[in-house]
From TrEMBL:
Protein name per UniProt: Tn3 family transposase
Domain of life according to the entry: Bacteria
Source organism of the structure: Streptomyces endocoffeicus
Entry-linked Pfam families: DDE_Tnp_Tn3
Ranges where the Tn3 transposase DDE domain occurs: 344-489
InterPro entries cross-referenced by the UniProt entry: Tn3_Tnp_DDE_dom (IPR002513)
């Protein structure tokens, strides 16, 4: 099974899901058993992911609702503090006036403001907020709801982590034992090193008061929320999962890297010898530090030290574009015709034949002379705000004809084939070689908030107030977009990057590209992925 590329395994599993038992029996044994094996293996992976993903989503939903509630509570707290701030503004001038005798400092505010007004804010004093402003206390109200599913998840799924995640893995073992035995109190010496500093005060306060119930609630919430964050970052992974697999599984093994190191270093212009590469990096670092020291000595550069000795970096200024470049850009723009989008699609089809990739879902071979016109109308309508109704009104083709064409011809696989056709044509153009060989790719995700209900939208407090999605775009080194995926926000992007490598691998085997490595830029850091 491991000898088959992941994309091939998923393809065979998809065939197995579509086949009936009778159709599977009629298959030859050398085809039937690989389909059955891949179906079982892929189903096990999908079921495991379907267990871990709701765990992540439910915790994120509870935390997101708590964050919204906390924001409202902080706003109300700020309103309630207005009277106290007004009172302070009246008292401070009296305290700051050195001409007022010390024995009169306490008398004047009482006479001017009044004792009742001074006592009222003091009586309404609210307790000081913890370090996280009470964020963890709000999900604690959903503790009973969270307990309805987390014990089963911890009992069923095995979580593994590295050295940094060892305290968290030990805490998960303690929590499993508490769930299995029905014990209520967290044992002495239970791991707490994984608890973030902003939440440690809750545990210290509960321990100081001897409140074992509160300590259990907060300790369990810290464990579960830290587990969720560690699953997203890759510090903790689930063996056998695809979405939450070990990040090292996506990288070259040492043996594989030895086979690819020379070619890769040639592509990126780096030395294959570690000693030479480190020496070059040290020289580059020394040069950069010397330049930084010179800039700091001037004190008025883009990087400087403030009065507290902290490093201050000014915003980057806009790139200075020479006037000749602007003139050349304007001249080239005047040379380009202002062509309608329909004419562009017709011209591209004449060069590439990409409309022939849109085949009938039922296998129909005959194609009417008007089919390409209908396909172009559908593509424009579906990719713009017009929609099929608006396109039908604009082009004169009845709506039911456009809807039938879109249903039977425009599918995910036909769109992918058409895009591959365009990418391959772009790769053959003489000017394209000036951008590179096309053997490298860059992938990046964009976060977008959503409104209303969506099966793809997820809670992700770092980026969204409510819910949102991630759009993952894959661009080759020749600036052609060969893939784009809409993902659930919070989904680890390594698996999606591997999917892109597999898509690019299809281009390698069947068409033009000589794919060596895909470079995925995930959260600002490069990860080197093996194309499958």
């Amino acid at each position: 099974m491991s000898a088959l590329p992941a994309e091939r395994r998923r393809h065979l599993a998809q065939i197995g899901r579509r086949l009936t038992a009778q159709a599977l029996v009629r298959r030859e044994p050398n085809r039937r058993y690989p389909i059955l094996l891949t179906l079982l293996a892929q189903s096990a992976v999908d079921v495991l992911d379907s267990v871990v993903q709701p765990f992540d989503q439910t915790l994120s939903g509870s935390e997101s609702r708590a964050r919204v509630k906390l924001r409202d509570e902080l706003a109300e707290r700020a309103k309630a503090s207005e009277d106290r701030l007004g009172l302070l503004e009246e008292i401070l001038p009296v305290l700051a006036d050195v001409g007022i005798a010390d024995e009169d400092v306490g008398v004047l505010p009482r006479e001017k403001i009044g004792v009742d007004r001074i006592r009222a804010p003091h009586a309404a004093t609210t307790p000081r907020l913890p370090r996280d402003h009470g964020h963890l206390r709000l999900p604690e109200g959903s503790y009973v709801y969270i307990r309805q599913f987390t014990p089963k998840v911890l009992e069923t799924v095995r979580f593994v982590g590295g050295t940094e995640a060892k305290p968290l893995i030990e805490a998960l073992g303690v929590l499993r034992e508490l769930n299995a035995t029905g014990a209520r109190n967290v044992p002495d010496g239970a791991p707490t090193a994984f608890v973030p500093a902003r939440w440690q005060g809750y545990l210290d306060e509960a321990a100081a008061k001897g409140d074992a119930t509160a300590f259990r609630h907060y300790w369990e919430l810290c464990t579960l929320l830290t587990l969720r964050d560690s699953l997203r970052s890759g510090d903790v992974y689930v063996p056998g999962s695809r979405r939450y697999d070990n990040p090292a599984a996506y990288l070259f093994t040492p043996a594989q890297w030895e086979d690819h190191r020379t070619e890769f270093c040639r592509l990126v212009g780096e030395s294959p010898e570690a000693g030479e590469a480190l020496a070059l990096v040290r020289d580059e670092l020394d040069g950069a530090l010397n330049g930084l020291e010179e800039t700091l000595e001037k004190g008025d550069g883009p990087v400087r030290l403030n009065e507290q000795g902290e490093l201050v970096i000014s915003p980057l200024s806009a790139e200075d574009i020479p006037g000749e470049a602007d003139e050349l850009h304007a001249e080239l723009e005047r040379m380009l015709p202002n062509a309608p989008i329909t004419s562009v699609l017709v011209e591209m089809d004449r060069h590439t034949g990409f409309l022939d990739c849109f085949t009938h879902a039922g296998g129909k071979q005959a194609r009417s002379p008007q089919l390409k016109r209908k396909l172009i109308a559908c593509l424009i309508g579906l990719s713009t705000h017009l929609g099929l109704h608006g396109m039908a009104s604009s082009c004169g083709i009845p709506y039911d004809v456009l809807a039938w064409t879109a249903e039977w011809y425009i599918r995910e696989e036909t769109l992918r084939e058409a895009n591959i056709c365009l990418v391959n044509y772009h790769h053959q153009l003489p000017m394209t070689a000036m951008f590179g060989s096309g053997t490298l790719s860059s992938s990046d995700g964009q976060r977008s908030p959503t409104r209303g209900k969506s099966i793809t939208a997820r809670h992700l407090n770092k980026y969204f107030v409510s819910e949102g999605i991630s759009t993952y775009t894959h661009v080759s080194g020749q600036h052609s977009t060969f893939g784009e995926q809409a993902l659930e926000a919070g989904r680890p992007l390594l698996a999606a990057a591997q999917d892109a490598g597999e898509i690019r691998g299809d281009l390698t085997l069947e068409r033009i590209f000589d794919m060596i490595v895909a470079i995925a830029r995930i959260h600002g850091s490069p990860d080197y992925l093996e194309p499958r």
